[in-house]
Write a structure and sequence with these properties.
Radius of gyration: 13 Å
Strand content: under 5%
Helix content: over 70%
Largest sheet: none
Order of helices and strands: HHH
Number of helices: 3
């Protein structure tokens, strides 16, 4: 296992953990903690793809990160 794998696994854990908390009703998907977990997780997975490039995975993770970041920006603007 190399550093890229570790970065990708941390990102995966963040996304899955955020999803589990959301499904369990412990996190609101429209609030900053869940959005930040998704943005960070997707960004880490995307970073790990630079080592072993996969275009379809990069598109999914890039979109996931952008959508979460737009949600965070929307929250910031409302404050």
């Amino acid at each position: 296992m190399n550093l890229s794998d570790v970065i990708g696994l941390v990102g995966t854990a963040l996304i899955l953990g955020t999803y589990a908390l959301t499904v369990a009703g412990r996190a609101d998907p429209k609030r900053a903690p869940a959005l930040a977990g998704n943005a960070a997780g997707a960004s880490l997975i995307l970073a790990s793809l630079w080592h072993d490039w996969n275009l379809s995975a990069a598109i999914v993770e890039g979109a996931w990160a952008v959508i979460a970041l737009l949600g965070l920006i929307r929250l910031a603007i409302r404050r």
